[in-house]
Amino acid sequence: xxxxxxxxxxxxxxxxxxxxxxxxxxxxxxxxxxxxxxxxxxxxxxxxxxxxxxxxxxxxxxxxxxxxxxxxxxxxxxxxxxxxxxxxxxxxxxxxxxxxxxxxxxxxxxxxxxxxxxxxxxxxxxxxxxxxxxxxxxxxxxxxxxxxxxxxxxxxxxxxxxxxxxxxxxxxxxxxxxxxxxxxxxxxxxxxxxxxxxxxxxxxxxxxxxxxxxxxxxxxxxxxxxxxxxxxxxxxxxxxxxxxxxxxxxxxxxxxxxxxxxxxxxxxxxxxxxxxxxxxxxxxxxxxxxxxxxxxxxxxxxxxxxxxxxxxxxxxxxxxxxxxxxxxxxxxxxxxxxxxxxxxxxxxxxxxxxxxxxxxxxxxxxxxxxxxxxxxxxxxxxxx
Length: 384
Prior knowledge:
Helix content is 45%, strand content 13%. The chain has 17 helices and 9 strands. A 9-stranded mixed beta sheet has the order 1-2-3-5-4-6-7-8-9, sandwiched between helices. Helix 1 packs antiparallel against helix 2 and helix 4 runs parallel beside helix 17 (370-382). The two termini are 30 Å apart.
């Protein structure tokens, strides 16, 4: 392991601004709002802010305020933050992001998790926090290898936690972090003490009678999921089938990269008119800038290709039951991309012992509602 510090060359920032200024803008059908994608007027204004007002150096300084490292695992560099708690009884916790997120997602929860006493909490709830960038993402990318699916990432995380000297640890994640966290529980059951998820997808059971037991709220969630599968998964299809073709556009055009990501910050968050209703403009742009400055639009999409081309027998396991031996907790935020049905989740996750539902927040819970997420993580792991 070697210490790592972010130092983006000024020439890269100058090139970013030059490319934003030279954007060739498309036309659009008038009056359709967000229904066909990101509106031109909104994106022009956001791109101008990125070009003229956004301060990457401030974000860089904030990130560099936390200890960061690079280590090689299974032939790939893995970048991670490792923030140890001042509390002697703190427990290890690994947090995993998803797409189109990054380690940026967790910056607001590091302090409360590692030093709860300084944030109005109980010192007994303290964690040593490990936040890795998934191989192919940010400063862990590109991998230059095939085969980096969610199972391989989970095995890498088990190696990372072992290398850090953590014999018993807790796991948390959403989006791809959800899948990786569950896989980590399978890959390292002797050391994973509990798994907390802020995103979970419930697939319908094979038993038709399972539908008859659904109440009105469950049916609404089922219909929401069906609508999302029909209208909201275009990004998933292309990243799962042609990630390389997509990479040319997103690696060459910062505004293209911005639109590709900011659309999801609008659709998957508890926002009203614009994504900034849920997450600050600077935080969104820091996340997008990380993808742009590391040129990892394509390499991050490879995780979709690898994980959706696993064999059919493996895919069936997602219908459960998952043979986990440790307790699992799920936090449900109402404006997420998908909403799980509890009675089906209990079939899929036999060790489910904790279930929370909140009245606000969406897919990027650590950014949107850090206090709620931290509170739920504390409550679940406190009992384990």
